[in-house]
Amino acid sequence: MKKFEEIKFKIPELKGISAKNVEEHLKLYAGYVKNSNLILEKIDELSKDAEKNDYLLAELQRRFGFEFCGMRNHEYYFRSLEGGAKFLDDKSALKKSISETWGSFDNWLTRFKSIALTRGIGWAVLFYDPQTKSLLNTWVDEHHIGNLSGLSFIMGIDMWEHAFMIDYLPSQKKDYVSAFFDNINWTVAEENFKRSI
């Protein structure tokens, strides 16, 4: 079975998010890659006697969703910070779709930021549904609970405390969310959207 590989992201200096916070966050991402591979190895090993190991296999499969989604969500997150902050062009397909769905980009941004401030650990995510050809904002608990099947991840913000605790207290989550949007490279989200439509 092919192993997942840790992506070496090139994150520039960010406004409002320290290099130390990014460094520690990347270490956590590396752990998701490592654990995704480890779980698949263990599943392969235990599957040789699946009847005897059925309980362990079931629990490993359950845990795999958490580790895998943690890995992938972080890959979307860190890709959106590579290359420095870039605005979303008014003529871009993504901005037009956001404006059509929520009335304006600013309306969407206000709504999305409020989702990001949901109590608990998880992700605020902008998804695209290819079946209905529409965008959806959602909250994903942890990394996988509430992840919408069959939809394409356009952009998202990590709202686990590890994403901001070096720079911001939990009561300052709103400042972290603002800092994220000050640094996002919207061309990455636009590319994700174009691949999805």
Overall pLDDT = 98
- The domain count comes to 2
Instruction: Please give the number of β-strands.
Output: 3
Low-confidence stretches: none
Task: Provide a brief overview of the structure.
The chain has helices at 19-46, 54-79, 93-102, 105-116, 173-183, 186-196; strands at 122-129, 134-141, 152-158. It has 197 residues and is mainly alpha-helical.
Which key terms come to mind for this protein?
three-stranded antiparallel sheet; Helix Hairpins; mainly alpha; 2 domains; 6 helices; globular; 12% strand; single chain; 3 strands; minor pseudopilin epsh fold; 197 residues
Architecture overview:
This protein has helices at residues 19-46, 54-79, 93-102, 105-116, 173-183, 186-196; strands at 122-129, 134-141, 152-158. The protein is mainly α. It folds into 2 domains: 19-79, Helix Hairpins, CATH 1.10.287; 93-196, Iron/manganese superoxide dismutase, C-terminal domain (minor pseudopilin epsh fold, 3-Layer(bab) Sandwich), CATH 3.55.40.20. A 3-stranded antiparallel beta sheet has the order 2-1-3, sandwiched between helices. The longest helix has 28 residues, at 19-46. It is globular. The chain starts with 18 loop residues before the first helix and ends with a helix. The mean pLDDT is 98.
